[in-house]
Amino acid sequence: MSRNLERNQEATCYVGNLDERVTDEIIWELMLQVGPVAHIYLPKDRISQMHQGYAFAEYCTESDAEYACRIMNGIKLYGKPIRVNMSSNEKQVVDIGANLFVGNLDSGVDERLLYDTFATFGGILGAPRIARDPTTNESKNYGFVSFDSFESADGAIESLNNQFLLNRPMTVMYALRKDAKNGERHGTQAERLVAAQARKNHVLPTAQDPYGMPAMSWSSAGSKPSL
Questions:
Q1: Is residue 208 assigned to a domain?
Q2: 149 neighbors 98 (Cβ within 8 angstroms)
Q3: Does residue 128 share a domain with residue 47?
Q4: Among 35, 126, 192, 223, which residue has the fewest nearby CB atoms (within 10 Å)?
Q5: 194 and 119 in one domain?
């Protein structure tokens, strides 16, 4: 299960949206269900040794890899739908900073419902993340959603902050920046300028539905999505 430095990209699947409890062995056993696996590579942080939320599964043939993508994409592992596609098609996602914090979530809200609720405002990069207890997998009642534009993120904040989703009013705001001091949040003017330049150069990330289904429709009132 070691990394193959000369990995056959055409026979390799990208496996994303992995729960923190996933191990090399679990990915190996899972992907083995659809065909012979040559190698598994689960990138890990050098210091913490925690994986980074994605893995690569190399099959013996390209046809096996394509079959694995069709069968495995969207299945739930530790309660989270994994994203499986051909590694040769996987592009590096550019984080423009349109990242939202969603707090006070009802315990019944899962990643799919969060996606459907926010996707009415614009393209979402990958599946939303809900913070969960590593032992019980219970929701910690907050999560994160990343849009492909600040216009979409601004619209979601304006329309959804303090709106009820199931039985609780959500708190929706820009998430704290990991690299910032003094509690600075995303959505700054500097980030918006960078995003505008990226749009001019056609290097913005592309949103894709990780569930392969259409988002929820707008309500008949037309001003807010139907929750």
A1: no
A2: yes
A3: no
A4: 223
A5: yes
What pLDDT sits at residue 203? 60
Judge contact between 68 and 13, C-beta under 8 A: yes
Residue 14 located in a structural domain: yes
3-state secondary structure of 208: coil
| Cβ density class 66-79: b for 16+ within 10 Å, e for less | bebbeebbbeebee
**pTM given for the model:** 0.55
- Ranges of the chain with pLDDT below 50: 1-5, 91-93, 213-227
In the chain, what percentage of residues exceed pLDDT 90?
48
What is the chain's mean pLDDT, rounded? 82
- Could you list the beta-strand ranges (E) of 32-182: 37-41, 54-59, 76-77, 80-81, 83-86, 99-103, 129-132, 139-146, 164-165, 168-169, 171-174
